[in-house]
Amino acid sequence: MLIAGFPAGAFQTNCYVVAPAAGEECVIVDPGQDATQGVEELLREHRLKPVAVLLTHGHLDHVWSVAPVCGARDIPAWIHPDDRHLLSDPAAGWSGTSASLFGDLRLSEPDDVRELSDGAVLTLAGLELVVDHTPGHTRGSVSFRLPDDAIMFAGDLLFAGSIGRTDLPGGDYATILRSLAAKCLTLPDDTVVLPGHGPQTTIGRERAANPYLKEAAPHAGPTRGI
């Protein structure tokens, strides 16, 4: 398994390329602000051929470069339908004051946009990625899992020591707690979490020390008895 990434732009959003090995096909996860050059450098370094872009949600800092990246390689972008409108209307994902910071910025959808659904299994680039709908940060937030390798691309659902903000349009604190309970607390402790911002972590580490996962725990529901 090859996973390489870098923090893109002023938001330092983690962009990843994922492939079975160097010299093979790959997928690109969350190409954010000014990510195009960094993506191209990783593709050249590892001799990779991208077949799709996967978006954990529609916030500007995660989708800024999706149209040019897809257009340069003639590949599709995958996003949950609840966040698709943000591809062409990024200000809709921010509060009024925050949206004004982007001025006259205009984004557009890639030519080929495909929609994600909860529980779907994407077979791309020799990988099988499970899609988990994880609303709360946005309505259309998702995470992508490689179950055989115990790896989760969490987007802005879960960070090392924290979680995604819920004060922007489409965010909801109770909803993100339910997502954490259903989609994170049910995973093995050795699951590696690759978040949308900051360093990687594990489910076990967050289960033990992340105050938000502790708060989410009562929402996980009863466990099966012996």
UniProtKB/TrEMBL annotation:
What keywords are assigned to this protein?
Answer: Hydrolase, Metal-binding, Zinc
Entry keyword Iron:
no
**What cofactor requirement does the entry state?**
Zn(2+)
Q: Which residues form the Metallo-beta-lactamase domain?
A: 12-197
Q: What's a Gene Ontology MF term here?
A: metal ion binding
Query: CDD domains under this entry?
Result: metallo-hydrolase-like_MBL-fold
Q: Which ranges form a coiled coil?
A: none
Matching entries from InterPro entries are given as: MBL_Glyoxalase_II (IPR051453), Metallo-B-lactamas (IPR001279), RibonucZ/Hydroxyglut_hydro (IPR036866)
Q: Which domain of life is it from?
A: Bacteria
Keyword Lipid biosynthesis on entry: no
PANTHER family in alphabetical order? HYDROXYACYLGLUTATHIONE HYDROLASE GLOC (PTHR46233:SF3)
Instruction: Give the protein's recorded name.
Output: MBL fold metallo-hydrolase
Organism (species) = Nonomuraea aridisoli
